Amino acid sequence: MPEASLSLLRLPDSMIIRRSLSGKNGFIFNHLKPGQYQLYVSNIGYRDTMLSITLTTADTVFNTGAIWLQPAVHSLVEVVVKAIIPPVITKNDTVIYNVSAFKTRPNATVEELLKKLPGIQVDKDGNITMQGEKIQKVFVDGKVFFLNDPKLATQNLLADMVDKVEAFNEKSERAKLTGIPDQDPGKVINLRLKPDKKKGLFGHGEGGLASQNRYGVKANANYFKGNTYLSGVGHSSNGGNLQGSGGTLNNRVNEGSLDYRSNFGEKLVITAGYRRGGNNSGNTVYNQRQTFLQDSSLLQDKETSRFDKQQHHTFTAKVQYTIDSVNSIRSDVSFNMLNNENGNNDYTAGQIIRSNTIYAVNDAFTNNNRSGARWNGAIGIQYDHRFKKAGRYVGISLHKGNSQSKGRTALQSLTRFYSEHGFTTDSLARDQLSFQNGNGHDYSVGITYTEPLARGQILDFSYSLGNGASKAKQEAFNYNGVTGKYDEPDSVASNSFESGNSSQQIALGYNYFRKKLQWQAGISLARNTQLNKDKSGRQTDVHQSITNIFPRASLLYSISKQKNLQVSYNGRNRPPSIQELQPIPDYTNPLLIRLGNPALKQEFTNEISLRYKDFNAAKNRSLFGQLQFNNTAHKIVNATRINSQGAQEQQSVNLEGNYTIGANIEYGISFGKGPNKGNVGFNTSARYDNAVNLVNAEKNIRKTYTWRQTVRAEYYINEKFGATASARFNGDWSNYSVDARKTTTLFWHNYNASLYYELPWHLSISSDINIAINEAQQNLAGTQAAVCNASIIKRLFKNQNGEIKLSAFDILNKSNSFSQFTGDNYIETAKTEVLKRVFVLSFRYNFRINKL
């Protein structure tokens, strides 16, 4: 019987080591080692059959003889498939995980399932990466549902709903219609639902009370029926999400979202999402910064008490209409609105360190209160037409965007300066009220055309035209002690500024793709024009035109079905923002005053990358490596002037000589006697940054060497027991040409371990510990903390769809928020007061109604 599917499984681990289709004369598997095997045979309309085989060292040829297939019996086929289903398979560029091979605890979310899949990593914040790439989208049954927020799917859908998890590179509409591979496709995850989970109403509700007068409630409901999906999530708390310590001390959150997708007939698909959120938070932050100068250092200690209130609304929608078999149109709409009020009360003290002596040089009291609102909206339209000739395609795109903002800032500050002997030499008080207004718009139009030259060879042409403009106006008034009002105009802090830019780009490229080799080569010509106007009349208008000619190239070689090598080059430009351009001083920090520069040019970045990927589904082994180089012409950097009293002024300028070289390698493999007993992974990255800036008009080159090492392991015994462990080491070494004597070393390491265990009587326990150590550097202190958490869950009711959970977070009361980082010519630490030890008692109920 020809075309029967054959899979040879190695025992005892049931790994698939050979696949084939039978021919008229049967089949042959060569180069097999002695051992025990199972041969799995299937064909449409026949019952799946399995044959046990034992090969010894004496066997040079083993003949199975005739294998008889019986007519299919549905129930028997189902049982056999479940017994030997491979955990992971690859199909072209898609990795498919069979969820039934990865056991999860009752009521586990999709996020918990993803953590068990080899080759996929999920961090503590729910961000997903695979083969070095961040997952930007999660589809449901191959369809976009949760727009721009994959966590809504992974944290609210249950693992037992999913039949398969698929990971693949997302294809643009042009790639689908022409076959031309995208140069830099994004990776997505698709959740294939079980047939009986594709309809009905399901979700959960939960609520909890905690020590320190904390509470939290959350509800999620999903309605699936045919091609109609509807999902809603709501959350309210005064302690983050009550899932741990370490959050902001005072934080009230109210959030909600609604997602919708439906097919209207066979041609129209509408997907929409709405997000509403509000928060009211406050905390205290302690900063230490050491700034390196030519002959000394400036050491600053800063304490900030701040608050932040926000209300935001976000709406996104996608409408897809298939006109006929060769024409389609798509529209994307987005709208965002934000109202905010925030403020900070600071005290900063500065000291000069010179020749082993240290003395106070300045201090500042600052009180800032800001309120404002802004909104932005955009609409895009894409029309695609596929001609009868395969590979011939035309696409037209339109985009229009608008934004508007307004704000009010109240500033009071007192700055004092001291001599080396501690005497006050000068002081400056400021009491000011300012009003800001801004608006902007942009539009673009583009056309793409492809023409097939021969089989697997396509010529592409594109042209785009864009235009944008923005306006920013600030009116500042100083306090008048005579009238008791803010009625004294401050001309230095007031300004009206306009910036406009236009761009044109034309590109021509050649695309070659065969089964193993794909490559693209082309050239682009881009011209950008910018006009900056100071409407206050204090500076002359600046008109600039820049023309860039840059190549476009990429090569993808498929060494085998599981291995590929890719080399690519990309070029991109970035125009300066209105904040970087507007020549107006920002006095919110009187010891670091920032000023825009209307003469700024656009940046242009060249990037070259080399990537290697190897994913062996049979052995659950993955290897990913990447080399990357980029340099930026006319890079926008800081020019800082620091006077003898420690006060700084900073302005944006363009400088050359900025580049980065980086390498990353990631390896993961499964271990154990059976599928998915455990995974272990290693990630190593190294990077060199050459950053150029100005300090007191002198060129400063900061050379930074960065090293990251991560080791992680997970071990699972079915759904009853699981343990994970990880260690991360981070090192940053920087030196500064402005002070060659100073070399900074930031070393941070983190250790984490967790476990859970399913007890009898529907009980489960879990615990984790996280140890973070930040080493001290120069005159800045380090820190270390060990945070231990534990919980116990009792599942209730007949279907175990209720849960009572008692949790203890930060049992040792050691939680903190501490970070270290380097800048142009400084190192800095930041420590934030956080929520420490807290106990939470919560209840969760999962519901599902399959028949409506």
From TrEMBL:
SUPFAM superfamilies: Porins (SSF56935). Pfam families: OMP_b-brl_3. Transmembrane segments: none annotated. The keyword Membrane applies. Keywords: Cell outer membrane, Membrane. It comes from the Bacteria. Gene3D superfamilies: TonB-dependent receptor, beta-barrel domain. It is found in: Cell outer membrane. One of its GO terms (cellular component) is cell outer membrane. Signal peptide: none annotated. Residues 385-845 form the Outer membrane protein beta-barrel domain. Its main location: membrane. InterPro entries: Beta-barrel_TonB_sf, OMP_b-brl_3. This is Outer membrane protein beta-barrel domain-containing protein. It comes from Niastella populi. The lineage of its organism: Bacteria, Pseudomonadati, Bacteroidota, Chitinophagia, Chitinophagales.
